[in-house]
From TrEMBL:
Family: Belongs to the methylenetetrahydrofolate reductase family.
Organism: Pseudoxanthomonas helianthi
The keyword Amino-acid biosynthesis is assigned to this record: yes
EC main group: oxidoreductase
Any one GO CC term of the record: cytosol
Protein name in UniProt: Methylenetetrahydrofolate reductase
Gene that specifies this protein: metF
Gene3D superfamilies: 3.20.20.220
Pfam families: MTHFR
A molecular function GO annotation: FAD binding
Amino acid sequence: MQTPVSFEFYPPKTDEQRSQLDRTAEKLKTYSPEYVSCTFGAGGSTLSFTSETVRHLKQEHGFEAVPHISCVGGSREEIRELLKLYRAIGCKRLVALRGDLPSGMGHPGDLRYASELIEFIRAEHGSHFHIEVGAYPEMHPQAEDAMVDLKHFKAKIDAGADGAITQYFYNPDAYFHFIDAVRRLGVQVPIVPGIMPISNFSQLRRFSEACGAEIPRWLGKRMQAFGDDAEGIREFGADVVARLCERLVAGGAPSLHFYTLNLAKPTQAVLSRLG
Ligand code: FAD
C-alpha cells in the first residue's frame, strides 16, 4: 500500500509510559509516517506533557511531531503563549480542536469553538502553521442535527483549516457520505479517516460511548462471542480494520491516521495486512 500514514500518541506521564512510547515510536518508524501527533488532556490539564512529548518525538525520534491544541477553558493569552512555544520548538503543523471541559469545570474560555481558534491562529501566525481540524462522519455527539454539524465543520475550513482528520468509525459509508456532503457544501480540503485498531473490546466500547462512535451490531456481537480470547479479538479486529482501510483507500481516502493509544502491535497488525 502506497497510501501515506500518520500516527497519534497521547503524552506519557510516568517513566514506564515514556519507555512504552519510545518502544512504540521505534517500531512504527519503519512505516515512515508523514507525521505523528500528540493529544492533550481534557481541559488543558496536561498541556506541558503535550509540549514535552512533541519536543521529545521531534528531537529523539526525528518525527515531524504535531501537537493537538484546544481552546476550551483557556484564555487568548494562554493560547498565544502556547502557539509561540510550538513555533519556537519548530512545529509547522497543528491539530486544532475545541476540546471538552471536564465535568464540573466552570469557565468555557475566551474562544468557544474550534472555528474561533483557527481564526485566532491565522490572525496571530498567518500561514505559518498547517492546521488540521476534527471531523465527525457520524456527527459530533453534541450537535443539534447532522446538517447543522456539517455547516459548523465548513466554518472551520472557511476560517482557514488546511485539512481534517475524522473521529474513528467502522462503517465506511459514514465516511463516504460525509465526504459527499461536505464537497457539496464547497469544502475541498483533504479529509483523512481516523482509524482505531481493535485490541481491547471493552475499552473500545467505553471510548465509543463517550465520543459517539458507533460499533456496528454485527461487529459488537462477533467481538462479544470471543469472550476472554484476547488473541482471537486481536486477529479478528485486525482483519476488520484492515478491510475497512482497504475500502477507504479504494474509495479515495488521501491517507490514514492511526489512533495508536501508544501501542505498536494493534496498528502493526493492520498495516502488515495491508502490505
Ligand atoms: P468544534 O468543531 O468546535 O465543534 C464542537 C461542537 O460545537 C459540535 O457539536 C459543533 O456542531 C458545535 N459548533 C461548532 N461551531 C458552532 C457554533 N458557531 N454555534 C453552535 N455550535 C457550534 N479531545 C481531547 O481532549 N484531546 C485531544 O487531543 C483530542 N484530539 C482529537 C483529534 C481528532 C482528530 C478528533 C476528531 C477529536 C479529538 N478530540 C480530542 C475530541 C474533541 O476535543 C471533541 O470531539 C470536542 O467535543 C470537539 O472538538 P472540535 O474541535 O471538533 O469542536
